[in-house]
Each structure stands twice: as structure tokens, then as C-alpha cells.
């Protein structure tokens, strides 16, 4: 695992976008896993500045709410369209988001999982982390080998995401999320984290026991993980574990 510690969210965006750009330059038809929420926004902003040809890139979103009306501005389908597809110039036909509006969401989840495999798997998956350790919408208690499925959002997640809606009651209660096992099949995982409020959970995820109680802890079992965090989010890390390299704005300081 490699951890980059940088000063702020803009620097997170610059470092993470550089990593994604390198993947696309070496594989112009790369399959990217894209995340929503606040953490990846500086990454997409910085990536737009690379002016890459992403017309052959395919992308899969991590998750989607169940039960929002089609075209709801806070549905992840719309967020991905605005922040990723249009901003970065992807072909809309190459971008998939779970079908949260499907008549049979369970079935849609299984089909989504299958479509990721059919695309050859994800080359690089961008991730954020929730305050309770979720990645995608795998809430605490999710099986470490879980597949894409319908999940119930934790109260804490709905509270955190209420900022995007008029009120807490408007935040959907269910979602379709890629499973932890699905995410772990991506060839490279890129976790971006900023803010003091994520410091404790980031430390628990990277240095604590691997457990369904902290879903992001499963990253410790993946062979190729890059974490890009600002100094606040990284402030409680104890990266003395074997195999962890910490870089502060570039040069390695500890192995
Ligand atoms: C979003 C997602 C979530 C977020 C997490 C952190 O697609 O899957 O796991 O990454 O909730 O959200 P922010 O970045 O808004 O703190």
C-alpha cells in the first residue's frame, strides 16, 4: 500500500488525477470505477485539466440510490453525468450507473455485477470513505466478499448525505451498491480522503483489524492500493505496518 500525504483537497485532486491520467495514457480503453460524494470532486476537476482523450474509456459507478425519480439531480446517475461524463468528455454510452429506478432492483444489481465482469473488470477504482468506514454503500456488517446488491443505508450515511437534499426525509433509505468482493476485483484501488473528521476512521481502516465492522479495512487485503489523503485526514495514521510506504508530497519518508 502506498499513502500520499498532501496539504489539501486540491493537492489530493492533483495527485489522484495524475495517477488516473497515467492509467489512461497506458491503456486508452481503460475501465474506470468512479465514485460520487464530495471527496472525488477535486480529482475530476484536476483530471479535466489534463485534457486527455477519454473517448474510449468505459466507466462504472460504485452505487446509486433506490427510489429517486428518474433525472433527480442528486441521483448518482445525474451526478456522474454532470461531474464525470460531461466534464471529462466520456462517451455517455460507455458510462454505467446501477439502475436504482429498476422495477426489480435486486435483479438490476446482479446484472450490474455481471456487466463489470463482462467489460473485463475495472482497471482503477476511485473510492471515498464514509465516517462509519463504508466504501461505496457497504455499511458496517457487509460481508467482505459481498457482491453488488440492494442495501439499506445506515442512519449516519443518510445524515451525512442530507446536505445534498432538502431534508433528511428526502434521502432514500435504500441503494444498489457494488459489493466489497466486487470492489476487491478491481486491479488498482485509489482511495481519496480529506478532513479531520475522517482521520479516526482512516486510521482504523488502514491499521485496525480487517473486519466487516469497518468495511474499508478490506483494502488491507488488496495487492494494489493507493491512498491520497490530506494532512488532517492522515493525522492519526500509524503506518509502521510492513508493506506500507508513506510519501509526503512526493518523496518517500518511511517504509
Ligand atoms: C460514493 C460512495 C461513498 C462515498 C462516501 C464518502 O459513490 O460510494 O462511499 O465515497 O460516502 O462521501 P464524501 O466524499 O461525500 O465524504
For this entry, give a set of tags.
255 residues; alpha/beta; Rossmann fold; nine-stranded mixed sheet; three-stranded antiparallel sheet; 12 strands; 19% strand; globular; disordered C terminus; binds fructose -6-phosphate
Which term fits the overall shape?
globular
Helix/strand order? EHEHEEHEHEEHEHEHEEE
Largest sheet: 9 strands, mixed
Total count of helical runs of at least 4 residues: 7
Helix content: 25-40%
CATH architecture: 3-Layer(aba) Sandwich
**According to CATH, what is the class?**
Alpha Beta
- Percentage of β-strand residues: 15-25%
* Arithmetic mean pLDDT: 94
User: How many domain units?
Assistant: 1
C-alpha end-to-end distance = 10 Å
Written description of the protein model:
- The protein starts with a strand and ends with a strand.
- The chain has helices at 9-26, 41-49, 76-88, 105-118, 155-161, 180-184, 199-207; strands spanning 2-6, 31-34, 58-61, 63-66, 95-96, 124-127, 149-152, 174-177, 189-193, 225-230, 245-248, 252-254.
- It has one domain (2-254): Rossmann fold (3-Layer(aba) Sandwich).
- It is 29% helix and 19% strand.
- A hairpin with a 3-residue loop joins strand 11 and strand 12.
- The strands form two sheets. It has a nine-stranded mixed beta sheet with strand order 5-3-2-6-9-10-1-11-12, with helices on one face. Strands 4-8-7 form a three-stranded antiparallel beta sheet, covered by helices on one side.
- The site of fructose -6-phosphate (F6R) has 14 residues, from loops.
Amino acid at each position: 500500500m502506498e499513502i500520499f500525504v498532501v496539504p489539501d483537497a486540491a493537492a489530493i485532486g492533483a495527485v489522484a488525477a495524475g495517477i488516473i491520467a497515467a492509467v489512461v495514457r497506458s491503456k486508452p480503453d481503460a475501465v474506470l470505477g468512479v465514485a460520487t460524494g464530495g471527496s472525488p470532486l477535486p480529482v475530476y476537476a484536476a483530471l479535466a485539466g489534463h485534457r486527455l482523450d477519454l473517448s474510449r474509456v468505459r466507466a462504472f459507478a460504485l452505487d446509486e440510490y433506490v427510489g429517486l425519480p428518474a433525472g433527480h439531480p442528486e441521483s448518482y446517475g445525474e451526478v456522474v453525468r454532470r461531474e464525470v461524463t460531461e466534464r471529462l468528455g466520456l462517451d455517455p454510452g460507455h458510462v454505467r450507473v446501477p439502475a436504482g429506478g429498476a422495477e426489480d432492483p435486486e435483479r438490476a444489481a446482479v446484472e450490474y455485477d455481471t456487466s463489470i465482469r463482462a467489460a473485463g473488470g475495472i482497471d482503477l477504482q476511485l473510492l471515498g470513505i464514509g465516517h462509519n468506514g463504508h466504501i461505496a454503500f457497504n455499511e458496517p456488517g457487509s460481508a467482505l466478499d459481498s457482491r453488488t446488491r440492494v442495501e439499506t443505508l445506515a442512519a449516519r450515511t443518510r445524515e451525512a448525505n442530507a446536505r445534498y437534499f432538502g431534508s433528511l426525509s428526502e434521502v432514500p433509505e435504500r441503494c444498489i451498491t457494488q459489493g466489497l468482493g466486487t470492489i476487491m476485483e478491481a486491479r488498482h484501488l485509489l482511495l481519496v480522503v480529506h478532513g479531520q473528521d475522517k482521520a479516526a476512521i482512516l486510521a482504523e481502516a488502514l491499521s485496525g483489524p480487517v473486519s466487516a465492522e469497518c468495511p474499508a479495512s478490506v483494502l488491507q487485503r488488496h495487492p494494489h492500493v493507493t491512498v491520497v489523503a490530506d494532512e488532517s485526514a492522515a493525522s492519526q495514521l500509524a503506518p509502521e505496518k510492513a508493506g506500507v510506504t508513506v510519501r509526503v508530497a512526493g518523496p518517500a519518508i518511511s517504509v
